[in-house]
Specification:
By secondary structure, the chain is α/β, with parallel strands linked by helices. It is built from seven helices and ten strands. 31% of the residues lie in helices and 28% in strands. Strand 7, helix 5 and strand 8 form a beta-alpha-beta unit. The longest helix is centred in the C-terminal third of the chain and has 18 residues. It binds adenosine-5'-triphosphate. The site of adenosine-5'-triphosphate has 10 residues, from helix 1. InterPro entries: AAA+_ATPase, ABC_transporter-like_ATP-bd, ABC_transporter-like_CS, ABC_transporter_ATP-bind, P-loop_NTPase.
């Protein structure tokens, strides 16, 4: 069954009893979730727990997948994947502008590229960019659409450790500036804590843990890490 998606004037996600299954195997088993406007949320879970399935459902790109429940999402949604998905036969700026209307589109595209640190690379081909630069271009392509909701499916998963650190900082900076709601799917507990204000753990087809990260509160990074690892069944001090 197709998801019931209606456009809202305010950017927020609301899921009620969302189910999705593949070949009779239930992956999402009645997910209830609200994502308030402007919140940065990370989604953790074991491999195969259904994180991408949930993200694709919210993005409205899971046509043909069996399921039920209600889903409300904002009108302007951008999605970033692990690979940049830039069209190799188009230069960087046209990639960013793809499908964008308006007289000021080019100006906005250039500004977005400058914002992600790719000013001056507008005429480069995607293959001339490093992996990190390609992901920067993908972020520019997302942000130029001024999304109310940014869905990111392991956007830094294929990058080296140093580039990943820089890209995390960039994403947080862009979020602070533009304030879309963000749902970041990641395998990386530390990435989730460093970036997000709320961390969810998907478990047995539902949200098993819903943790608020209070940066100004008394809890240190390590405390959140231990709780999240425990929810994921990882006990670091076990032999
Ligand atoms: N199109 C599909 N057809 C059949 N099964 C699918 C399809 N998409 C996902 N699945 C199955 O649904 C389950 C959840 O997949 P999903 O990709 O959502 O998990 P995930 O938590 O994102 O995993 P990972 O962290 O490894 O990317 C998996 O068992 C997967 O094989």
């Amino acid at each position: 069954m197709a998801p019931h998606t209606e456009q809202l004037t305010r950017p927020a996600v609301r899921l009620r009893g969302l189910t999705r299954s593949f070949e009779g195997r239930t992956v999402l088993d009645g997910v209830d979730l609200d994502l308030p406007a402007g919140q940065f949320t990370a989604l953790l879970g074991h491999s195969g727990s259904g994180k991408s399935t949930l993200l694709r459902a919210i993005a409205g790109i899971d046509h043909g997948v069996a399921g039920s429940g209600t889903l409300t999402a904002p009108g302007r949604v951008s999605v970033v994947f692990q690979d940049s998905r830039l069209l190799p036969w188009r230069r960087v700026l046209p990639n960013v502008l793809l499908g964008l209307d308006g007289e000021d589109a080019e100006e906005r595209g250039r500004a977005a590229l400058a914002e992600v640190g790719l000013g001056g690379r507008e005429r480069a081909w995607p293959t001339e960019l490093s992996g990190g630069e390609q992901q920067r271009a993908a972020l520019a392509r997302s942000l130029v659409r001024e999304p109310e909701l940014l869905l990111a499916d392991e956007p830094f998963g294929a990058l080296d450790a140093l580039t990943r650190i820089k890209m995390r900082a960039l994403l947080r900076r862009l979020w602070e500036r533009h304030r879309p709601s963000v749902l970041l799917v990641t395998h990386d507990v530390d990435e989730a804590i460093v970036l997000a204000d709320r961390v969810l753990v998907l478990e047995d087809g539902r949200i098993g843990l819903d943790l608020t990260v209070d940066r100004d509160g008394p809890h240190a990074h390590g405390g959140y890490r231990t709780r999240l690892l425990k929810a994921l069944g990882v006990f670091e001090d076990a032999p």
